[in-house]
Known about the structure:
about 575 residues; alpha+beta; Beta-Lactamase; Heat Shock Protein 90; 3 domains; five-stranded antiparallel beta sheet; 16 strands
Amino acid sequence: xxxxxPRPGRELSSPASPTSQFGVQLSIDQLMRLVSERASDLMRTxxxxxxxxxxxxxxxxxxxxxxxxxRIVEAARDVADARFAALGVIGxxxxxxxxxxxxxxxxxxxxxxxxxxxRGLLGALIADPRPIRLQRISDDPRSFGLPPNHPPIExxxxxxxxxxxxxxxxxxxxxxRGGSFTEEDEELVLGLAATAGIAIENARHYEESRQRxxxxxxxxxxxxxxxxxxxxxxxxxxxxxxxxxxxADVVSVVVPEPESNLVRVVAAIGTGADDLQGARxxxxxxxxxxxxxxxxxxxxxxxxQYVETTICPAYADVLGAVMxxxxxxxxxxxxxxxVGRARSGRQFTGSDxxxxxxxxxxxxxxxxxxxxxxxxxxxxxxxDRDRIARDLxxxxxxxxxxxxxxVQSIAASLSSSEHGARLIDVVGDLDETIREIRTAIFALRExxxxxxxLRSAVMSVVSDVGPALPERPDVIxxxxxxxxxxxxxxxxxxxxxxxxxxxxxxxxxxxxxGVRVEATPEELEVYINDDGRGIGDTRRRxxxxxxxxxAEEYGxxxxxxxxxxxxxxxxxxxxxxxx
Length: 579
């Protein structure tokens, strides 16, 4: 048999050469390395995404705004694997009002000094809120360079944080541990910034809700706390509440001065309060005046143009945002509350003004109710005193009169005996007692603080000078003083009584003093006596000379009698017919 020949077109196979086998093996290794690298990248990306998710959960779980901002900065540094991270909060004026850093110790931050305000490269992100990624920060023409003592940085990544309706701030990352920030870093930080915007808005709402609850609680308490009759103490309580609730640095309460175009600071607390207390300034040009004129609250971001800053030196370099709140009552404007924050603090918001204005309105209402309650108590006291005075007049004095008449009639029948003379002395004592009771009745019926009558003017002086004497002076009024004495004489009588009692308190070393004011159809006499050591030989009698001139202007005179150990008697008289 012939051997079978091979099929046409088919070649006998031969074993693969080592070269071809080696080439196939290289392709498999490369493929495995590529797959391994891709798997590592996927795992690293998965880890970074997991880190981003954990960061998002950490951010949204925080409710306080300061806590949220701190967590955002820390999370951004971890997600982007950067050495340094910062968050700049944009203020109303377009600069950075707050700058939170992570990655630098306190000594480094202190050595750098003032925190950035948002100029240069940082300001570029404020002006145009789009991400900025640089391999070398020094290559960007907008970079102003680093401040002294700042650690060196090369790579930079900036991303804006947006809240509904505005840009809240910017995230700044520097010095990537991988050498430079990548597009993936930028995407991850942008995702974090989106979550940060939501968390910030939630924290703001939570903070505002908490603040509103605090203001409402203070509103409820203000009526209960304003229970004292001292209005200044009440205003201090209002100032303390506003200082705490508004996170302010200084609060002052001003009230209008009667019959003038001025306001006076009656309560102040915080920075410069000691200098501010008691200050007076014009209503026009003041923030308090603007609030009272409008009848609603006013906010300014910088108070330099207002007069309040010129009356308190402590305000000059520290005061920034200010708001003024009117204290409006049914009778008109009772005053205003001026609230200030330091320049380094945040600005007042519309929500701050709304809550503070509501509190001020409630405080004004509470003040009005407290005044009304105090007036009711004073009226009840006056009514009670009037009832007592009426009972003394209608019962006690009338009985004393009857007793005096009876004793006088008995004394007349015994006029020749010793007993008759003693009864006459008893009648004199009864008359003196009746005069003292009448003086007490007048004091009960007189409205405290009133100075429209001669009696009230004398009693007011006695109340002022009396505490300087060992005992309160006895005061007796005789005759129809308020009907016969010209009102123009009242101030002179008050001056006589004040000078006489003051001399007794300073020089007489007396234990007892008395004042008698008596009016007859012919003359008015003010008689003041004491049981002290007498005037002595001193030549300084300018006060008595003034009293003598006052009497001589009315055609009257002054008589002073004094002897050592027997006290001093002063008689100031003016004619009533000559008026």
